[in-house]
Amino acid sequence: MSSYRFSRRTFLRGLGVTMALPWMESHTVWGDEPPVGLKPASEAPVRMAVLFSGNGFHSKEWWAKGEGQSMELGRVLAPLQEHRKKLVFIRGLYNAEALKGNIHSSQTGNLLSGAPLASGGEIRSGTSIDQVLAQRYGRSTKVPSLVLGCEKSNPSVHKNYSMLYSSHISWSSPTTPTPLELYPALAFDRLFKDEVNRGDQSVLDAVLEDAQDFRRQISAHDQRKLDEYLDSVREVELRIEQAGKKGELQGWRPTLSAPNIPRPPNGIPQDIAEHMRLMSDILVLGFQTDTTRLATLKLNNDHSSLRFPNLGVDYMIHHLLSHSDTEDWLKVNQFFIQQLAYIAGKLDAIQEGDRTLLDNSMLLYCSSMMTGNHNNDQLPVLMLGGGGGKIQGGRILDYTGKPDRQMCNLYLSMMDKFDVRLDRFGDSTGRLAEI
Questions:
Q1: Which domains does the chain have, with CATH numbers?
Q2: Which is the most buried residue in 237, 241, 329, 371, by most CB within 10 A?
């Protein structure tokens, strides 16, 4: 893999704005030098996103059978039907340290590190895979990693474990959960603005002159790609302006039937579906522009208090609903998997040379327990994408009953795809040869 350097990337620039460009066939925007006498398109880098939802899934509908396009999926996974050829369904992996305590906090805080968790008021986990990669691989981009969330952190304590463990999957160090960005506008600004605050000018307006100059240097095909990309940025900008104007309040029960103060501008969308969709679009933009190559999207907390009026499921919070196998629980499960399917579809529609952006990415989806009954002797794990052409999809990998089935073995294999090769990570005993 080429050694990409942030300082040599191609950007559109304007007053207070720096916007990275997507892959193009006629211009080496990634920052690498072409061989002498040639000007080929650069090879796109590998990206990774980890999506998380708390409280597990429906016990009877999380399954897959077969392979390739004929793979059969349980009803929870129905939204992934069209992505089966690029799906790896993984069964039997677990996190040994998360078996201790057997509560939400003790099962989530080390999901991406495999590290022992401190209890008794102390906070200590381990640096998560996304942040290990951010510190080594992410330095080539403007934003080393994008850490997004759709539910606020819970600072309380539950059965001697901090609920911060339930609220964070990304850890910058053993004692530092990576701050979650809950505000779509600020996440958007972080990708494109030099200073993260609200400006008076659209990002696109700021770089328009530079974009027009750049457009003259590229092929007709790339001009269309640039126009599509700028249109997608504008669409997200306009939707962010509208976010939060809907009347549904979710995730908690207010003491008033309507707010008694004006809603702050530029805040968190009140509609959970719009919130998740905005965060998904921002993640895709981050990858599409190579502004970041690493992201986590925590759709909700473990022990979540979200409600889902958009699904007609407003009578019970997510955590309590998870202790059932009702059709409403299935609806909520499918709603979360739809976010993964949406991101995969967007990435797969973006061509990067001979591969799509999904082919150049790894999307890992997991929860900290198989079902809401806290059983985590094996974890629900999905992978989508080709990891830069290095991962074959359309498969089921079953490690049930095998001795070396640590989640951290999967993480070592994933880090290899970024040419970040570690001897050990967490409680790993080796790599998963099939990944």
A1: 47-201+248-416 (3.40.720)
A2: 329
- Hey, which residues does 87 pair with through a beta bridge? 384
- Helix ranges, 109-218 (H): 129-136, 164-167, 184-192, 203-215
CA distances 112 to 94, 95, 108, Å, are 11, 9, 8
What separation in angstroms does the CA of 72 have from each of 63, 77, 187?
A: 8, 9, 36
- Residues 257-274 have pLDDT tens digits of 333 333 223 678 878 999
Task: Assess contact for 298 and 168: CB atoms under 8 A.
Answer: yes
**H-run or E-run covering 89:** strand 87-91
pLDDT one-digit tens code per residue, 205-257? 777 888 888 888 888 888 888 888 888 888 787 777 666 555 443 442 322 23
DSSP 277-310: HHHHHHHHHHHHTTS-SEEEEE-S-TT----BGG
Asked if 267 and 132 count as a contact pair (C-beta separation under 8 A), the reply is: no
What is the rounded distance in angstroms from the CA atom of residue 250 to the CA atom of residue 109? 24
Query: d(Cα 368, Cα 53) in Å, to the nearest integer?
Result: 8
CA–CA dist 417, 376 (Å, integer):
27
Alpha-carbon distance 29 to 33, whole Å? Answer: 10
Cα R_g (the chain), whole angstroms: 21
* pTM for this predicted structure: 0.86
